[in-house]
Every structure is written in C-alpha cells, then in structure tokens.
Amino acid sequence: MKAIIFDLDGTLIHSAPDIHAAVNKTLAETGDGELDLATVATFIGNGVPVLMERVIAARGLDPARHAAMTATFLKHYEADPATLTTLYPGVEDALEQFRDEGWVMGVCTNKPEAASRAILDAFGIGHFFGAVVGGDTLDVRKPDPATALAVKERLGADAAVYVGDSEIDAECAWKAGMRFALFTEGYHRAEDVDDIPQDARFSDFDVLVAVVARLADELR
Ligand SMILES: O=C(O)COP(=O)(O)O
Ligand SMILES: [Mg+2]
Hints:
The chain is about 45% helix and about 15% strand. It has 9 helices and 8 strands. The structure holds 2-phosphoglycolic acid (PGA) and magnesium ion. 2-phosphoglycolic acid binds next to helix 3.
C-alpha cells in the first residue's frame, strides 16, 4: 500500500493568522508588545517550543520565561485554533482524488496532536487521515525521521511520498527515505526555494495529484 504523508501548517492549512493571534495574546498578557504576521510565519515549523524561543529572541525577552510563555501560548491557541485559519485552495479536492485512487494518507506535523486533530475536524477533513503524528505524540519531533516513519507504519504502508512546505520537512523526508514534494506557498526560512532539497515542487493543489503520481512512478 502506498501512502502520502502531509505536513500541516503551511501545507494543508494557512494557519499563520491564528498562530500569530495567539502569539500576540501571549505577549499582550505581560505588556511585551507584538509581532507582525510575516515575522511570526517564519517562526513556524519546528513546533511550539521553538516558536516561543524565536518570539522571545525577537522581542528581547528573558529566556527564563520560556516555559510560562509556552503554556500561555497553548492556552490561547487551543482555545481558538481555527477561526482565522483557511485550507489552501484545492486541498479538499486533491484529498478526495487521492482517496479515490486508493492512496492512504496521514499527517506528520510539529503542531501538538490535539490541536492538529481539532483543526482537521473543524475543516471536515479529519476522516481522510488514518494517522496523525504531532509534535508531542512521540518523544522526538521533525526533522527526526521517526515521526514520518511512525505515520507510515500506522498507515500500514510499504512506501510513502512526503508533501511539506519547509526545510524541516525536506530533511525529515530525506532521512526517512521518502520522496519529497515541496509546497512553495507555505512557510519556510530559506530565502530561495531552490535551497530546499526536493524531488518536486508545486504551488497549486490542482497539480499535486499529477506531481505525486510522477514521484510514485519513479519509485518503481
Ligand atoms: O511549527 C509548528 O507548530 C507546526 O508546523 P508543521 O505543521 O509545519 O510541522
Ligand atoms: Mg509546515
């Protein structure tokens, strides 16, 4: 059985506006100013603890506040994870096509698992995914390949293509021995998408089914 493993933030969902809102609510509680959306978007991808490290560095705050700020962020984010978030155009149609073609699908994200599942269900797409591994599901997170390999194993798949938006996903896919398709419209730190290792790239979900079919053919 063949699997597609999707990253979540910046791949299936444009979640930066809700993450940004929760960051600013966290900063506001202690009068520590605010950050703009574009800045916060570049902080996404390594999970909440790293997001908060980057927020603390950007605002010049005391690193000793990390644990408390992480808890405050999660309180705000989990209370309101999907209001400002949108599915990228074409995601639902692509998932339907993959399902109809017999692919099994899973999510491998550094977002906490509970919030990830809540968001997938809020958009009515949770049923497409036979496995969800979040940033707190295992004792490691991406780019550790154990995450993507756990999704593949939970899906019962013998081969997998990985679809993600960042260098973290590229590294995770490579270490897990999976072909990697890069979604260029999400969040990454590299200035140039050419600098992110990739087997294919796409900017529109309407072409993803064809892109993945090509990568899967190359596997044979
Ligand atoms: O940084 C995060 O919280 C999650 O990001 P991801 O879904 O792109 O892995
Ligand atoms: Mg991502």
